[in-house]
Every structure is written in structure tokens, then in C-alpha cells.
Amino acid sequence: MSATETTLRRSGRERTQTKLFVSQPSAKRKRDDASEDERDDNDIEDDPSSDETASADSDDEEPEFPDPKPKKKPAPARPTKATAGTKPPAAKKPRAAPVRRGRKLATSENATTVKDASINDDNALFNALINPSTALESTVQDFLDSLSTTPEAASADLVTCVFRLCGCNTSVNSDEVMDSDGILDFLNDVVEEIKGTEAQAYPLISKSPIFRKLRKSLSEFCDRLVKSASESDALFTSELMPTFQAWIVAMSSAHLRSFRHTATVVALEIETALCTIAAAIEKDAETVGRQKDAERKKRKGSGGVSEREKTLNAKAAEIKGRKTKISEYLQDFFDGVFVHRYRDADAGIRADCVREMGQWLRRHPSHFLEGNYLRYVGWVLSDTNTNVRLEAVKSLQSLYAKPEYLITIQHFTERFKPRLIAIATSDTDLAVRVAVIHVLRAIDAASLLDEDQRSELCVLIFDEEARVRKAISGFVKGIWEETTKERLVGRDDADDEDSPASKYAGAKALASLLVSWERALSRRATTGASDDTSQMSELPDDQQTSHQTLAASLSSLSQRGRTALAVEALWDEVDAVRDWESLLEILLLDHSGAGAVEKNAPSTSNMRKKGSSSVVATPAKKRRANGRAPATPAKANDDDEDEVDEAWRLEEDEERALVEVLLACLQKTLADEGSKKGGDLDSVQVDTTRALIKVLPKLFTRHQTDPARMAELLKLPQLMRLDLFLEMRMMTAYETLWDDITKQIVTQTAPALLSSALSAMSHMLNTPLLSNTNATKLLELDEELAENLREAVTGHAELDTASFSSEEIDSLSAITTRLARMAERRDLTTWMEDDDSGKRSSAWDILSALMERGRLGRKEEELFVNNAINLLALHVAWRASKLRQGGDDEAAVERLQKQRDYLVEQLAAFVAAGQFNTTNEVKRTAFQSLITLHILFARDQSPTGAATSSLSKLVITMDERLQHQCAGFIQAEAEAFAEVIAEREAADESVRAASVSDDDQMDEDSVTPTKTSRKKNATSNGAPHRKHPKRDVAADLANEYSFISVISYFIRAVTPGVIDPSHASVLLAYHGRLGTQFDHCLSTIVVVLREEGIYNKNGELVEHVVGEALRQSFTMFMDGQTDSVLEAVGLAKALSPAFAIRGAHLSIVQRLASDHVIAIHTTLLSWIVKRIATYDASGNKKKRADSIEFFRVLHALLNTVDSREAMQIKSHLDKALDDSKLEVPPTAKAWDAERLYEKRLLGAMAKDKTIVAKGKAIAAERRAADETETEGENADLAPKKKRVAKPPKPRAQGTRRSTRVAGAASSGEEGTGLTEPEEDDEDHDIFGSRTASQASPKKATRPKPKPRYAPESDNEPSEGAATPTPAPSSPEASPPTRKSSSPFKGRKRAREDDDDDGEEAAFGTSPRQARQSSPAISEASEVVSTRKRARR
To answer: Are 1416 and 1211 in contact, with CB atoms under 8 Å apart?
Structure first.
């Protein structure tokens, strides 16, 4: 079939189209045509699966974006000068250079290499490109001069240059370059020739220094070539472009990446240069058109055409012809290269295509700024590669930067706008997200985003990535300005940005926007990804996970954290976040709505009451930049409340948001001033402190009913210089501040509020100048707390058994919560032990009685019981710290010891199972405190460590009984959490099944919905989509956090040895069942085992823990608690690092002692073989099959086993199977795990030369004995009559299979068997069988059957078929006797019988005897021999 097809161009000349080059398929190809050029684009929106099979229906639906329809033969070949249907003769013009015969690759003898690259330097154009000092302009002129004299030779040089850029030394001569019909054959020959050579990096991707600037030089060369050819008319009059285009288009479809990539890059660069020429020609056409119009107007009324007009007409016709040709070149390159390569399998090629498309859109917008071309950029937005998506976004950035293009691309914008928003919110690459945000800002400037889309983008102001927040800040600024102007519509001072009305309205707008965005974020977090299904469908798989977790990751930030992130991003954009004085003023107003004024008030006179001084009159206002006037002072009256305009009236959530903004603003202001070089931090801090001193009492009074706002306001004192209270003689205000903070501590229980109040109190206590006032106020606080505690228990003589009302329980819970939070920050030991000289009960006694109520097991009392336990434990810790720092006090030590022992006894009773009806929460708290106390007193508390110190009496150790109780408690916790996970997974599965059922029902109802079915659906289902209850993610996370906390305390006790590591097996057994965080915690136990076993030489501990953990984990599988053995296998892999310490390149530096490694395997082998034998005797096949899977667990422990250890383990395995009288069938799938384990052992044994040497010695002895025996037996093999081979005799029960030996000596001599890599785990031939049919046959009496372990041939009968028995016809047909000392060296395997005889003669007269004498050596020799035969 001809490779060309002649059609008629619009210019009138013929156009020959060339087929895309596709190399012939090869058996060694890794990618076929479908995977290479027809890459699946299901993830790309509306992208057709094939350009050649575009759908007509899609054209009707999207008239402006039809599917690409390249021509049937889209790659145009080089046109010829002959008429249609005729083939031009070969050119016979004189040639400037001799013809180069180009089909043969140059060798190293006749080619000069370019540095390290094996590329010939026989092409002047290629040499100029790789030489940075070459003037490419002169190179282009020389080429065009050669083109004018010898066009064929010049074209051949240009095509040859492309071959050099591909890293190919093939050259094209003048005849071949003009032969358009032979291009495909030529390229096929070149490709086949290259396949036989070693692959090297071609110049475009090579990291060699000589090719560093090649890409830039190539781009410049193509640009200069097209420009110079256009100026000299060679571009329009010669065959340069058609010829070159035919070769480039064909090469761009090659399967070799070097050809395809290089040709694509060259084609794209040529297209870019043509765009510049086309734009210039279009401009010339417009100029000539205007000149014609002007000339036509001049001759209006006078007949005839002037000479100038004729000249302009001729020039216009010439320009039109050039424009037509340029358009044809552009379209041919686009259809022949870009349409196919923009979805190439190589991401680099796709990125190049999209990058150059952006260049075309900028250089020649009149041609490419259409839907037929823009749609390719939109499709690539869904590419799975980051660089490709980034190039697509960059291409769009240049378009949206020009407002005149917005109308043209409006339809494109509407179509791909959802995808752009999905990228901005959910893409995995940060650079892509930032670039898309800039594009969306340009789109929003044209008012093409709706409110929902704008809100979705504004939520990114809370994003955890600083670059994303910074990029979206400009977008948020525009929305904030719009909102502010809307609130000031109709006001006289709306245009005055420095007016109080503008500042207050700006603060109101900021607060309302932050609240709305937080609500939107919360809705997204609660509803999950179900609301974003449409966008999720557009995302590649690697981005969907990021999109689904976006809301959850943002919601994990605290409220204050969100606002701080937003303030930091908007700091340079929005004035309201920097104006903390205005924020203070608006927060002081009463926003309850009692005295509201009209929104359209003409001035700001109603904003304040008369007769008050400025609330915030600080020197900072006088130093404000830009000369802005200070705000109008806020005025107040003692009798009336402030009247607030509706334009800036705040809701409760908005007030909270502004409080957070105020705090973040002050923190940012002080931080910037402190980090600024030459900044005046003291002056700024003084200004802020003076302002806060005046307004804090009012703010506390205004917002004291809202714990969230008070938690933020209580952080303000931490930013103040408290010594200014003394300097300003405002001690009354300081005492008032103390009273306000104390009031919050003794009345509130919210954790965030208490934390902020205690932090403020700590900051105040750290001011030395105010120590007297601090001491007085602190004493008052302690007395009030003690009085509250005693009042809560008044009227109950026996606190440990008394009955409390619900009010009393709530009171005790609140009081103990405050005390527990305070004890974490302050030393309350004196307060705890104060009993007023025995006149009243101390806090220690009261809390001890409350703690003992934990044995009652009342759920409603959990909170104060837990708080009591924490308070008592903290008291002991504070007391121990004071004794350590204060010296040796015998009485204090005895008192502490008594308190400590009492507390430990009570906590141990709570942890012990079955003693009391203690609730789980109390048990957890007791366990954590118990572990903390034992860790604290595990070593001597004396500063010098002297044994004579009284502090040495405090050292305690956890007895074995208590350790067992703690281990039992941890095991119960793990089992309970496992049940919770199982219930959670079952609930999720039921929800998924119900969702699928609903979808199926909807599909059935939507096929042919009759009236009856509609009515039935309306009455029975209620709604088309039934909502299923969703899991409480917050509760699940809290439960997991509580569990992991308990586990971490246990591991903390194991690490220093408080609890013996042998008890860690109860946790290790749950590996893989309780989540990744739990598995990560277990890695600490593995580190402890490695240190104990290797550094401390305590291998018995490792042996016990590993064995017990694996047994328990596998028992869970056998009992049905887990679905597969993968959890036990994962545990074995996690424990394997405890056997060795690896260094560089995973080399083993130190390892566990061999006897312990062997003991682990032998103990577990004995245990599992006994279980297998038990199930086999009882006939329980399922349990037996499940038990055999334990060998997969043992297989994971063989990573560090050496040859000696493997030999002993293998011997023990053989003995255990023999003692248990178990048979291992060679083909039974149930025993695959055992064969895999045995194969790994044999592979480890085969690496030891000494084992192979012993095998050779045994083989030599057996051969010597066999030589004398076979001489007399060969006579019996003469075929006097045809005999049928007798089946082998079954061996006795309990004996194992015959030894498989076939060539250990050969492998040992050649040295290949020792370093042979391990074979595939699925190849079980080397294991052979353990059936009776494998017993050794009688030697030289009959032809032996082919051994099972030998490699199977293609003509071998299938399993179960009758094996044909050979009938020897002569004595020569019998196996020959070998007399060589090395029977395998230089041997040729002529037939199977010869190989079988060698196997039997290798180790003596009886394989069974050889196996009984050295079974492990026989197995190792056998595996080496099998590998040897497999390689042959």
C-alpha cells in the first residue's frame, strides 16, 4: 500500500499526506500501540478515546468544542513537483557533498564520539547545536545557501541532524530524503537496528555537560531557520518544509522514545516559529488592506485602477498565498504531531506539548484562540502528572492576563471552571494550586464566578499551606472590599477610608466573612466528600484522597489557629486586621440591639455618647503611617448604653471572631516589631499595655458569659507589661485584673478557659515587682478553693461510701477539675496537706476518700474520681521533686513514702481485674498514674545517688504479680478496642451495602417509571435517596486517642524495664489489627528487644517474646478472630529487625546469637507440626490447611538466617515431620507454605561453600561404590524382551521422601551455586515430594521414572496421566557408567535417564542412606544441582 495520498490544497498545489510511522511489532516490546499512542484518557473531561473515531453526537452537544478529528492520514508527507498521481523522478541536480550511505550504524573505528556520548560528529548542523559558542545565525545562512544550490543534500543534512539529536548515527542521503514512499521502511530498518544496540541517553535528556544548552540552542536554531527562510522566500518556494515535515511527523509516532521525543520537540519548536511568522504576515495583510482602502477612496469618482492600487493588489495576493501556506504548515504540524503527542505515555512529551501550546496562544491568538484548540488545554488539566497540569495552568495564565481575550474564551471558562476550582482546593501539588488561584482571580475579575464558587475559594484562607493562603489573600481582599462598600451604601462618609464608619464597617465585614467561611468549612467537614462528587469525578486517583481529607485537615486546626492563619495571610492586604485600636473600640460597643440607629444615618454623631474621653488614645495612633487621622473617640454614659449602627452590629459568632482577630493582630504586631531590625518593641508593648489596661475590665464584663470569647480575652494579659500597673500607680486596676481571673478559675470548668486563665495567672506570678500583691491574691484563691472543696462534701461522714446527689456530683466534678488543672502548673503540696492543726480534714484526706469511691463503679462519678487520682499522683510527684531539691529530710521522706505506698496500693487494686466493679475510665486513669509513679521511683531520688541517703528508701520495683495484672489489663484493652474496630467496620460495610441497594433500586425505578411504581416509591421509601446514619468520627478519634494513650504508658514502662519486656508479647500479638498508630507504637518494643538481645546478650528474652507473640497472633487466626494470616506475617516482618543490626547497603553489622535464632524456629516448628499432626489425625482438613499457613509466618523470619542456622533448622524440620508421621505431597496446594519455607532454607544453605564441599565428598564416595556395582548390573539391562517398569515400592510409614541430589559437586566446582540468587517463590520444583512414589528404585534393573523435582519438559505428560515406559533395545540404551572423578564437569545431558542415574550415583548406593547420614547436606546439594540444570 502506498504511503502517500495526494489531495489538493486550497492554494491549488498538490498536497501529499504521509502516514504516521509505526514501527513493526516485536516480541520484546513492552508497550503496544494501544498503550503507547492510544493512552486511556477516561480521567480527562470530554476527551475522546480516539481522534480517528470522533463522535458526531458530541459535536452536536458541544458545537464550539468538537472532538478532534485529524485526517485519516494526518501526517503530511513531503509534496513533490509532479502532478497528481505521478511520482517524480529522482533529483539529478549537482551535489555539493558526496552521497552518504546511511542505513548502517557507524562503528567506533570510523566514527568520532562526542565526549562520552557515542554520537558521530559528521553533521555540521548537529555540531553547531552542541557548541554553545557557535553563531547560529551564520549557520542558518550557510544552510539556506546550500539549500538554494543543492536542496536535496541540504534537506538530507537537516534530517540527519535530527537523527543525531535522537542519539542515532544513521545518515540520510539525497535520494533517500526525497523518497517520500520509503520513509516508513527506512525508519523501520533504523529502529530494528537500534534495538540490537545498548540503550543510551539521547542528547535531549542526557546529563552530559556538552548537551546542557542543547535545548536552548535547538529552539533558537528553529526560530532563526524559519525566520530566515521566510525572509528569503525559501519557506514558500522551496520543498524544505514539506520534506522536513514528512520526516518529522513520521518520526514523532515511533515507539522509540528517543525518536518520538526528539521529533516532537523539533516539530513544536518549528510550529512556534511559524506562529511568529504567521502573526507578522497577518499584520502585513491588515496593513495592505488599509492601504487599499485608502487608495480606493482617493480614486473615488475617477475611473480606472491606479498603478499603486495594482501594486497593492499584487502584494495582497502574495501575502494571501503566504498566509495560506503558513496556515497549512501550522495545521499539518498540529494534526500530525500535537493531536497525538499531547496524550503521549511519556509525561515529559505531554508537558512539552502543553508548554508550546501556551506559546502558540500568545504568539498567534487569531488562529489558536478558538475552542478547537483551547479544549486540549482544558483536557490536560486532568492529567495525572504534576508538571503537565502546571504547564496547562501556565498556558492559561497568559490568556486571562489580557482582558480582551476574556470574551473569546468565555465558553471555555464556563466549561472548565469547576475543574479549575477543584485543582485550587484539592490538587496534590502546591505550585499547581497557587498558579490556578491566580487564574481564578482573573476569572473573578470578569465576574464569571458565582457566590458558591467564591465562597469555596475563600475557605482557602484557612489552608495549612502558607503559599496557598498568601495566593488567595488578594482574592479575599476584593470580596472584603465589596462587602464593606455594601454596608456603607447611602452614607456621607462612605468614601472616606479613615472615617470611623469605614473602619467599623470593615471590621464587621471581616467578622461576617470569617464566620461564614468557618461555617462552610464545618459543613464540608461534617458532610464529607459527598457534596463534592462532581468535582471528585474529575480528579485523578492520586488527588482524590487529598480532596477527601482537605476539610478534615483544616477542621483539625483550633479556632484560634484558623484565625491566626487568616490574619497572617491578610496582614498586608486588609487594613482591618492591622487596626487593633478600632477592633478594641467596636468590641466595647453593646451589640445587643437595644439602642440601634438607622443604617442610613448621615454622620457618625450617633456612634458615641457625649461626655466621655477616648477609650483608646495611645501614642501609636500619633505615629500611624500615611498621616491618617485618629478615630473619633468612643463616648459612654453611665446611665445609657452605646448605640450601635446596624452597619456594624455584630452577632455573637462575629464578636467571637473579632476577639480572635484582635488577639492575633496584637501577637502579630509585637512579633513583627520584635523581629524587625531596629524595631522599638518596648514602646509598642507599652502602648498596647496602656490601651489594654483601660479596656480589659470592660471586655471581661461584656463577654464574661461566653466561655469561648473569655478564653481568648484571657490571653491578652500575657501580652502586657504588667509592671506598668505599678509605674502608672494603677494597683487597683491590677487587683481588679486578679479578681477577674480568679473569678473565671473558681466559676468555670471549660478546659480552654481554665487553661487560658491559669496561663495568665502564671504570667502575673512571674512579675517580681508585684510579688506582694501576687502572694496575697494567690493565698485568697487557695483559701477559696479549699473552702469550696470542703463545702461540697459537708454533711457526709463517710465519703468513700456516702450517696451524693446529682448537684453534689456536678459540684465535686467542677471543683476537682479546677484543682487538677491548677496542680499541673503549680505546687499545691502545702495546700493539699493543710489541716489547720488537725481541726479539719486536709485536701489529701478528702481526695483520697473520693478516689476510693472508684471501687463502687458508678458511671456518673467517673470525672471526680479520675480528677482525684490525678491530683494525688501529682501531689506525690511535686513532693518528690521538692525533696530532691531541698535536701534530706527524714520525716518528709517517711511521710511521702507512706502517701506513695497508699496510693500505689489503691491504684493496683483498681487495675487488678475482678477485685472491684471499677469502670473502664477509672481503670485507665489508675493504670496511667500507677505506671507514672513506678517510673518516677524506679531509681534513687538522691541528687548524688548515695546509698546512705534517706531518699533511697523511696525506690520501688513492680513485683511480678502486679506486672501480670498490668499485662492482663492491657490485653483486655486491646481486645475491647479490637471489638470496637470490628463493629465500626461492620457498620461501614452495612452502610455501603445499603447505599448500593438504594442505587440499584433507583436504577430499576428510573428505567420505566410507571405511576404505580412512583406511588410505591413515594409511600414506601419516602425519598429517592435514603440517608444512612454516619459514623461519629470525632467519637472514634477520641476513643482511639484514649486507647493509644494507655498503650503508650505501658510501652513507657517496658522501655526502662519497669515492666519486664517479656510481657510485651500480649501487645505484639495484636499487630496489624488495631490501626497504624498502634503498629507504630509497637516499633518501640522491637527496638527494646533488639537492644536486649544483641547489646545486652539477653537472647532468651527475645526468644520468649517472639515465640509467644507469634503463637498468640496465629492462634487468633485459627480461632477466627482475624480473616487471614497476613496479620501474623506482618508481625513476623515487624519483629525481624530485632534479629540483626544493619549498616550501609543493608549489610548485617551485628546479629542475634545463632542458638537463639535456631531455638525460635525449632520451638515454633515443633509447636506447629504437633498441631498439624493433631488436625491430620482427627481428619479436620480445614484446620490442618490453616495450620500449614504458619510456615508463611516462619518464612518472614528467615531474612537474617545464615547457612549453618538454616542447616540445623532444616534438620529439625525433617525430624519433626518424621516423628509426627506427616507426608508432604509434592503437588498439594495446601502445603505450598511449607515448601516455600523449606526452599528458603535450602537457598540459605546453598550459599555456604563448606556445605557444598561436604556434599561433593559424599558424592565421590557413592560414585566409587557405584562404579564397581554397575559393571555387573549392566548385563542385566540388555533388552532380551520388552519389560514394563514396575511401580516403586511404598516405603514404611514415618520415613521421609528420598533425597534429591543431582549435582552439588558440579555447582561447587564452578562456583555458581554459592552465589545464585534465590529463585521465585512460586517455583516449588526443587522441593520434590514426600510420597511413597519417590522412593529410590532398584539400580540397573529397570529404567527409573523421571524424578518429580527435575525441570519439566514441554512434552511431558500432564499430572495424573500414565507415564510411558521406555523399552531399551540394546545394552547401549542403558545408563552409561561414569568413570570421571567429577561426573558433572563438562557433561552433556543427552536424555533424562542419564540425569537420573547421575542423581542416584552422586552420593552412593542408597539415597535413603545418604539422607539419613546427612539430610541437610543432601538437600543443599540438590537445590544447587536443580538450579544448574534449570540454567542449562
So the answer is: yes
Q: What are phi and psi of 1166, to 5 degrees?
A: -65, -40
Main-chain dihedrals φ then ψ at residue 75, nearest 5 degrees: -85, 110
Q: What is the pLDDT of residue 114?
A: 52
Say which residues have a Cβ less than 8 Å from residue 1027's Cβ, sequence separation at least 6: none
Q: pLDDT tens, 1387-1421?
A: 333 333 333 333 333 333 333 343 344 444 455 45
> Can you tell me the distance from the alpha carbon of 398 to that of 438, in angstroms, rounded to the nearest whole number?
11
Q: What CA–CA distance (Å, rounded) separates 901 from 111?
A: 91
Q: How confident is the model at residue 999 (pLDDT cuts 50, 70, 90)?
A: low
DSSP letter assigned to residue 692: H
Taking a C-beta distance cutoff of 8 angstroms, is the pair 1241, 1210 a contact?
yes
637 pLDDT above the threshold of 70: no
Cα–Cα dist 1417/1414, whole Å = 5
3-state secondary structure of 814: helix
User: 45 pLDDT band (50/70/90 cuts)?
Assistant: very low
Q: Which of 410, 435, 421 is nearest to 354 (CA)?
A: 435
CA pair distance 152, 86, nearest whole angstrom: 19
Query: What global pTM score does this model have?
Result: 0.68
**DSSP per residue over 727-788, as a string?**
HTT-HHHHHHHHHHHHHHHHH---HHHHHHHHHHHHHHHT-GGGHHHHHHHHHHHHHHHHHH
Give the type of residue at 516.
Answer: S
**How is residue 1038 written as a grid cell?**
477520641
Q: How many residues does the chain have?
A: 1432
- 1295 contacts 1191 by C-beta, under 8 angstroms: no
DSSP string over 1199-1261? TT--HHHHHHHHHHHHHHHHHTT----SS-GGGHHHHHHHHHHHHHHTT-HHHHHHHHHHHHH
Angle among Cα 901, 907, 909 to the nearest 5 degrees reads 105
Cβ atoms of 200 and 117 closer than 8 Å: yes
Decide if 95 contacts 77 (C-beta within 8 A): no
pLDDT band for position 56 (cuts 50, 70, 90): very low
What is the rounded CA–CA span in Å between residue 1291 and residue 1411? 14
Helix (H) or strand (E) holding 821: helix 806-823
Beta-carbon contacts of 1173 under 8 Å, excluding residues fewer than 6 positions away, are 1220, 1221, 1222
Cell of 1252: 557444598
